[in-house]
Batch of 4 targets.
Target 1
Amino acid sequence: MKKLSQEQKDKIKAGLELLCEENTTLDKLQKLSELIKDTSALADKKIKQVLDIADRVRKIQEGDVIYLSLENLSEDTPKKKDRKKLLLLLLKNWKDLQSEIERIHRIQETAAVSGLTSKDSVVKTGKTLLTMKGPLGAVTIIAAGIVALTTFLNNKAVNIEVKNYGCSPISTHMQKDINIPGLKLPSEDIISGERGQITIPGIDISVDLTKKGGAKIKALNFSKEFNYSGEIKDIIYDGKSLMGKNNIIKLGESKDHELIINCGSNIKG
């Protein structure tokens, strides 16, 4: 991805504000199209789809305002059924567009904060962030987002010791290509029976493990979902199991923490 000018970054921020509104009009969408033009091929494609669907919605409803919600939307006439179908399609493309613009914004802001000013560094950072997978990948992407808000740099760092009990190696090799101030990850993959350390600011993090085989991590306004291996039997943070729960982890409560990833081995101290 090319490095954007400050003017382009300002336009992306303005576009994000429009994308966060609860309703829209064709005039707003035209303005949004101008703001995000040429930021990425996917964004250009999605805004065209959004414009086309919104125009079709406007033609079968009264008024120009399009509410981006299906709440209390009836289907008691063929016309209303058609409108609801179009709104479903509009909302899907709207969310895709929003995600793409947020992605571009995060990458550009992270590159700026990290001092990655060369074109090659920006491209490398962006590509690496996009391919992040697994729990440490989720931590890295969220950290990148927090850096963009500068909050990351204003929190006292804490240490999390990650222990692998009987699991496949916990990969860290992709994270080595990311330079995010305040974040430190293990230099080597964490193999079974060994441990590694993460350093991260002491913020509150939501870890949702209610879905079997899937997890969602949230911090501030940023979130990341990932699937984890079925071999994992338990995830224990500071002596308490997180599995099957929606957990709020307050990292700032202590300087040092322990995270155990257990795949069935007998846990020893």
Target 2
Amino acid sequence: MRSFALFSASILVSIALSAPAIAEGAPDLSPLACAWGKLPDAEQTRLREEFKVELGDGGFTLHFGTATPSETMEAARACQLTLAAPQLEHLGLALSRHAAEEKARKGIADKGEKPDSISVALEKMHEGKREMIGNKYGCPGSHTSVSEWDESVKGAVRRANLRFKDGRAYAWVSLGLYTVMAQEGAIRRMSGKADAC
């Protein structure tokens, strides 16, 4: 019996060591919040306006704005963030995705619903998918939807049981989930906790 217990333990250890890395959870976005607050109003407005959603055959493409490197650097400096050039680039990507989240929050509010519904639904996302989506959408450029990921986002919104009176707000919540996950991916990469794009 004892040899069986030792054998089982050794199998479990080898399985654990060979298994893929487990999702680490959401990164701390407070440096991003600080940097966003230090951006000039004109830069914030431009980033919000540059964010577009292009609808296609059964999917969509997200087009994020591009943060101005000098503004990003000044915001990082004002927040006492010491970042190398590649890290500043990822902070800029996170800022553009934060602007997109703000646009989604406004869309929810304009429908008479609560913008914090994004956070409620985000808690219902599968951690592994959340990290995978965030790491991809936190990369530079535009991003086309992936049907499997879209189903995960829709499932999280359903599980959040938001009970909106205006059903049009649900699309804004889904969009908000993508933008927050994208921020998380960019910040993970800025912190050296995600593979290169």
Target 3
Amino acid sequence: MKNIYHSDIMDMLLKSGKEGMSLRMLTRRLYNIHSGIFAHDVVFPNLYNQVRRYLWYQSQQRHSPFIRLRWGQYALKQDVAVQLDIFIDMPKEDDNKTSKSIRKDDSRQLLLFN
């Protein structure tokens, strides 16, 4: 089951920590992010039902990152939050090598046009 708000839900629940977040507060924040003056396709009751069904279904699955704490309260499983922190904070070695080679090439090109 795919949801277009999955990444936003993950971000909000990751920031809320092990206490989790109520479904109503989560939906309010999603609504504020995706609604605007010209966006009339986001309706709060429809969004609330969509997020409620999505989180309930996902919390019933064994391999889901979501866990239901109590009625209307959801959080991320502790293992998922630790895994995300590790992969986000890891620096990439390839980025440093490519940036050095680009800098050398740029300096040569600038000297040709002086």
Target 4
Amino acid sequence: MTTIPHIPRRRALIISGVLLAVLIALLVLPIRIPYSVTVYGRLLPEREWVLVRTDNGQLTSLVRSNGSGVVEQYSVTEPVRGDAMQFVLAPGLMSAVSVQKGDTVGWLTSPELAQQLTALEGALDVAHAMVASARSGDKPAVVQQARDAVTQARAAFDEQQHWHARQTELHAKNILSDEEFELSRDRLEVLRAGVAVAQSQLDAVTSGLKAEDVRQSEVRAAALESEIAAVRARMNRFTHIAPLSGELRHPHAADTLLAVQDRSALVLLLPVNVCDCARLREGDRIEFDVPLTALTGTAVIRRIDKRVEYVQGNPVSIVSAEAAGDTEALQPGLIARCRVQAPPIGIPAYLQHLWSSITM
């Protein structure tokens, strides 16, 4: 049978007092305990562009800055209703490992838009021909025929004019009768009218259509040009251009067609407890390693997001840090174990943190 040794009451009081004094001293004295935060984060490229296909056939183009969490560019390509559209990857990218900004990475083909463009271009050619015909007048053969008629009418008029002048002299000398003189004069007037008619016909065939008809043809041609420009602009939106330079990725996800990652910098995204975030500062150093590998590195905190999210029921804020040094061996997507050396804390705060970590 085990017996508990008897401790004199006085000694027990002394021991209790000493312990209490030590505890009070620890709580009162400005003793600081080193404090670090250990959390798991994911390595991501500083910037990336992804092309995603949605369930309804839309193509979403997204440029995202992982360091700041900002979506820099966003666009949606809507398929033509009922059209059999198809995405085609640029042949040069089948085996490429990187792309440059401005490279064509792929495009959507639309048979309906291609057919519509062909029909509009054909109608525009017809409209241009109508405008040219309206501006230049009738056919050359008809114009030449009208000019010949004017020439013949003027020749007949000139001949009769000379004859009538001779007839006028004879009539003045009373050699020609009044009836013959009037007949000659009437014939001259008839030929004069014939010249005017022939000239009017020539003017009609050389002046083309009426001004309002020419204007209508021009407006029709301009409207077709605007429609063609709109169709081409829509087809150009189906061509996807890389908005940044980087490594080309072909994710295994069925909805992601491709991704371009800017590897000029890598960032760590860390879900840190909101209480620990209050102790972190921009510029703090982070040491990390990748479990089950020999990969290690350091990073510097660049941004502490004030928004609160819940991860496995715990309130956290996202801390982004930029990887420092040589990051060639590191790959986006790796999960790293990160240790953030926060400023030392006092004993009360440390005890509170210790209690929270035990009871949570």
